[in-house]
Amino acid sequence: MKPRAAALECLIAVAERGESLSRALPPLLARIPEGRDRGLAQELSYGGLRWYWRLEAMLDLLFERPLKARDRDVVHAVRLAAYEILYLDTPDYAAVNEYVELVKRRGKRWAGGLVNAVLRRLMRERAGLERAVDGDAAARLAHPAWLVERFRAAYPEHWEALCAAGNARPPMTLRVNLTRTTREAYLERLAAAGIAAEPHPVAVSAVTLATAVDVALLPGFGDGDVSVQDAAAQLAATLVAPETGQRVLDACAAPGGKTAHLAELGDGGFTLHAMDIDPERLARVAENLARVGREATLIRGDAAIPAGWWDGTPYERILLDAPCSATGVIRRHPDIKLHRRAADIDELVRRQAAILRALWPLLARGGMLLYATCSVLPEENAQQLEQFLASQPDARALPIEAAWGEEAAVGRQILTGDSGMDGFYYACLKKI
Rounded mean pLDDT of 140-152? Predict the structure, then answer.
């Protein structure tokens, strides 16, 4: 399969059929031989979605009238071509020729002339078109308008930087298994393998690669010496800080990166339960644990209905990685900007509150619950916790003394891009 054809199929799957990028792209990449072509397909798929809303505004100006629904593939082909022309170093003539031929190969010879004309107009009028679309903040920042307004309201001094961080290419960050080696020793192994990396300034187990590589090239990856995990996510296990003899619950655990990190810390000294509602995703937790050579009791169940799975014995530690808008990881999952809707936030807030209330009785007196999200929206984070604390007399917020993130009304908020990290929120609650 050719890379541009794969990227076009990916955009159609995500934008028209509502599939996630993480589900749509891998089988398409598997049909392309490893090498530059596979890398180009991935770059085009991510880039076309990352800049979707700015490109959409430009296409609205370029097309004199909308095409029929059955011809949306032609629109997406032009979108990808515009991405190459505006953001990559593909020669303009090559981009035009490639996408004219692509729509013809899809059985739409009539569209070849249209694609050629639209793209040549883009090249002629590029500066004026960019000025026209960039007058609108949502188009300029390539985020849906409702999300731009949420960011602006929550972070009046940082909202543009937050959007820019969401459009940036994220670093590849690794979690070193400190029960097997030291970070310094693993950095030496990376250097010996010709992989440039540096220690992360915040997470003690994290190293950041200068350039992303295939995990198969990482020394000891298959043996569990290292895992791929953003530095912000690595903070969860150290905040939970499980102790010998405790019962620990990782709620909403899939895909299992934090579960595996907790298991690495414990080295068998405490009992770890990992639960999730989705059996397919729970299988991913098992795979992650197996690779790092650790074990946990896996539980399938709904975190909001513990009666269906809890054995009645309290936990001294609970990690609630709550379902959220994922607005802190848009740079890794640009399809979020297409799939998430403003109405989703209220429903997510209700779901988070229900899970928090349901899990609180499972926490032993003197125990600690860590509430975490990969969101940057206050209503899912500090505001959610303020409301819970106001209604739960035996809950107290514990201060998080840290050099990372910003202190919130409750807990700490990491904004996307802070110290190279994803956007994350953490709050520690103690049962008195």
Answer: 98
**How large a percentage of the chain has pLDDT more than 70?**
100
Mean of pLDDT values over 335-349: 97
pLDDT at 64: 86
Question: Residue 309: what residue type?
Answer: W
Write down the pLDDT at residue 267: 66
CATH number of 173-227: 3.30.70.1170
Q: Rg of the chain over CA atoms, in angstroms?
A: 23
What is the model's pTM?
0.95
Instruction: State yes or no: is 252 an active-site residue.
Output: no
Class level of CATH domain 3-138:
mainly alpha
- CA 47/CA 32 separation, integer angstroms: 18
Distances (CA, A) of 265 to 30, 149, 237: 35, 40, 8
* Distance separating alpha carbons of residues 22 and 14, to the nearest angstrom: 10
CA distance 265 to 212: 26
Architecture of domain 231-431: 3-Layer(aba) Sandwich (3.40)
Domain limits of the chain?
3-138, 173-227, 231-431
Q: What is the pLDDT of residues 82-106, one digit of tens each?
A: 999 999 989 999 999 999 999 999 9
Distance (Å, whole) CA 356 – CA 14: 32
CA angle, 423 then 278 then 338, to 5°: 45
- Of the residues 10, 252, 374, 428, which is catalytic? 374
Q: Are 319 and 250 in contact (CB under 8 A)?
A: yes
Q: Report which residue type is found at 286.
A: A
